Structures are given as C-alpha cells and as structure tokens.
Amino acid sequence: REAISRYVDAEMLPLDAKWRADHRVDKESWRKIGAAGFLLMDVPAEYGGGGGDFRHETLLYEELNRRGISGFGQGVHSIAAHYVLNYGNEEQKQRWLPRMARGELIGAIAMTEPGAGSDLKGIRTRAVRDGDHYVINGSKIFITNGGSAGLLMLVVRTDPNDRSRGLSILMVETEGLKGYRVGRVLDKMGFQAQDTAELFFEDVRVPVDALLGPLDQGWRVAMTTLSFERAGVARLHLNVARKLDDLLAE
After folding, report:
1. What is the Cα–Cα distance from 234 to 230, expressed in whole angstroms?
2. Which of 90, 113, 173, 229 is catalytic?
3. What is the rounded distance in angstroms from the CA atom of residue 11 to the CA atom of residue 238?
4. How large a percentage of the chain has pLDDT more than 90?
C-alpha cells in the first residue's frame, strides 16, 4: 500500500486534471504504471503479473479513489486479462498477458450495444467463419478504454439461430486492423477521465485463433468471469462512498 500510495501521489495525481480534460489516460502513463509493477498484480508471475491475489488489486483502487482519481480504467483492463487467464490456451496467455501487465496492451470489454446492455442475449454484432478468419460486422457502445484499447474482449454472435447459446468471445488486437473504427469518446457527467467510446466493425477479419474458449459458449464464459467484475464494482463504490464521506466531513 505504501509503494502504491507514493506512486499515485507522484505520477498520477498531478495528471488527473489533464486526463479529465482529455477524457482519457495517456498511453505513456499506462506503460509507466506497468513498469512499476502495479498492473495485473493478481495474475501469476509466469504470465508477467505480480503473482499476488485480489487484495493487491484492491489496494490500487483504494489509493486512487481516496484521491478522487476515477478515470484510470485498470479495473476493466484487469477483467479482460482474467478472461484470458481463465479461458485462454497457453499460447494466448503468453501472447497477451505479459504485454497487458507492462501496460503496452490496454484491455477493454466490448459487450454493450445500442440494443443490448444487461441482456447479452440481444447482441447482434456478428462473426462469420470464412476459412482461417472470422469476419465481424456490428457496433458497440459505452466501452470503457474503448478509444485506447489495443486488445478487445469482443462478444459476438456466431450462431444466429440460437439466442441463448450462439455467442462467442474473440480477443481482437486493434492496431492496424482494417475495417475497425473508434467513434466518439463520450463526454460524461462522471468518470470524466475514463475513456468511454463507441466502436464500429465493418468486415473486420481476425484469425480463428482469436477465439477465446469454446465456440458458441460465450454466454457461459461471460457469466462465470463477471463475478470478478461485480466484486470490483462493489469495491469501487465502497471507496467512492468513503471519499464522499470525507468530503462531507470537511
């Protein structure tokens, strides 16, 4: 906690106003905190993580929230990494997790669509197998880290005839990806420094080895890992409540 607290005061707090104005945390700051060892602290060291557990991740949230820094999207970044950790094969883990731990590859979770939020079964973004690739068409909205993400945990429909079981997850690297476009970064009332964007896919081709977990089992994969996200949301809002309590006391 002491190490994180010193880092946040020295390297993050002075930049918070700029991040709010820019509606994003700059990529250099992601790489710096990764180099300091404060990303993916609960991921095994063999994949570049800190080798700790959920408590270590909690410390970073607490120290950020104590200072009112709400824009750094490491929570979503960590959740995306846990999908890879829980369902990726060994090659996928080695390909993505070390770069995510170093802050070189920013993770995002691309589930929500204009007509499908809490009801994931309403997802319409399609991925159709074409030889050694999937061809993706559709859009996503309200995606945290969306404008900066180098790796998307993308939920797509791979079986149009099965609303309940026809979803799959593709891990999509965005750099230089033809047909992929980031739309507007949203200007929000809160979490102003958090990069929240619209994403568009037009005949985007990704290799079949981007598939995470079993084909057409994305619903089950998403539900089992969302418990990690829910714990993070509870942790976040508890710390925000403490910050508000401190402000009211002043």
Report:
1. 6
2. 229
3. 24
4. 67
- The count of C-alpha atoms lying within 13 angstroms of the C-alpha of 124, restricted to the half-sphere facing its C-beta, is 9
Contact 151, 122 (CB under 8 A): no
Q: SS3 of 213, please? A: coil
Report residue 164: phi and psi, to 5°: -85, -40
Q: CA 161, 163, 168: angle at the middle one, nearest 5?
A: 90
Element (H, E) at 181: strand 180-185
Residue among 125, 97, 121, 116 at smallest CA distance from 206: 125
pLDDT level of residue 54 (50, 70, 90 thresholds): confident
Cα(115)–Cα(96) distance, integer angstroms: 30
pLDDT one-digit tens code per residue, 32-50: 999 999 999 999 999 999 9
91 catalytic per annotation: no
